[in-house]
Fold Betaine-aldehyde dehydrogenase.
Amino acid sequence: MVDLSDITTELFIGGEWRAATETFTTMNPTTGTGLAKLAAAGTDDVDAAVAAATAAFRGDWGSLAPSRKGMLLNKLADLVEADSERLAELESADMGRPFGMSVAMMIPNLVATLRYYAGWADKINGELIASDGYMGGPTPTHAYTRRDPLGVVAAIVPWNAPLMILGWKLAPALACGNTVIIKPAEDASLSILRLADLIAQAGFPAGTVNVLTGVGKVTGEALARHPGIAKISFTGSTETGRAILRNSATNFKRTALELGGKAPQIIFEDANLDAAIGGSAMGLFFNQGEVCAAGTRILAHRRVYDSVIDGLKAAAQGQVLGDPFDAATTMGPLVNAAQRDRVLSYLERGASEGADVVAGGSAPDRPGYFVEPTVFAGRNDMAVAQEEIFGPVGIVIPFDTDDEAIAIANDNQYGLSATVWTTDVSRAHTIAGRIDAGAIGVNGWSPLAPQLPWGGMKASGIGRELGYEGILSYTEPKTVTIVL
Ligand code: NAD
């Protein structure tokens, strides 16, 4: 049982911890027993956080030199790095991912994002614009753009990768001079509560970053509606994204929506098959399949179809389900009972639609929210190929031509990411241009690196995070014209 004695389970507002009137309880996904009792922020708490963030924006944070902002982000990165194991422990205990993966991949991603945007803090420039004389006359003008911060940003994050995804919002928002209110997911708030302590330790002015744990329909909705918030940066389900878009219309908030996915992994006949099968299995099963970019539709050229089926079957059967803190475990439990039941309902649905069960297909007989890694063989019009399942479930679909592969890949409401396995360079570039996806990996997953813009097309969302796109999205371009 993870020790929570040093975690303050209150709201972090204006640099102080405050109790809330309501609380809610979270579960340990490995055992199915209670884990923590957390504060549930109400609308008054949201008002208080907006007031604190606005005061910091207009005061101590807003007036801090850009290079000092960068130094604070770097300091936070150092503190996170030094605290990696504890942060990883909290996150794995909360949402079930194997601890080793949290240490090796998730926390380093947050550190890298903080450092990347720390470097941007004093490099945000507008542009000088060659302009005509005033109103077309002889009087010259001097025109330029400036990139100012937006104001208070709300970062609403999901449970599948809380710290990593939070970093994609927090670091660029702060680097651009905004202040932030964080709303963690109900099922995985602990690592973010620990981060709040590190933010205080780093020395950010009070109110620069606030954390409101709580229920999505109360806390999240109040943030989306609040007129004092300039931008909502949301990662989560497509359904919640729609609600946020509607509620944000109150004051025309900027919105960044990173939503669901149903990524295709296309394996061509000329692919390096060992790499393609190993990579596809990783794309399918990493993080229990609770990944927006999970490669859940494996499109296999008919000439390699049987080998792909055999390879994925072996990969599924080779997964070791178990306690996230057991070093042998490669796949932990799903986040909660509702998610497990939802995934199991898709396993039944796949079988009833006539998909062949190549591997897995049910829940193991053990406590906790475990589901067997499952591979179906079937068609793209099946529900298991069309809908986001958000668990360790994939379907293999055969194709004969490049055009057919593209048509199948694009025949889905989502357009977040895709993977292409081929040794033909021109085919790789051509397919990348034709596929409906915000990020395309060739012969490997599209890496989630701070320098590379990330986001989706179609029902996978609006906007891009990370890279220079991330900077642009947290600034308001203003045009200034001086009549000389
Ligand atoms: P979710 O939409 O249920 O919840 C996400 C967050 O929104 C949580 O903090 C929740 O409390 C909050 N929320 C819920 N209802 C709200 C409302 N009405 N108003 C405002 N906030 C509200 O998503 P989840 O189950 O936590 O995460 C899984 C989903 O996230 C999947 O669909 C997955 O594809 C998606 N996701 C996308 C990306 C990406 O980069 N595109 C990354 C990770 C996860």
Notes: The two ends are 70 Å apart (CA to CA).
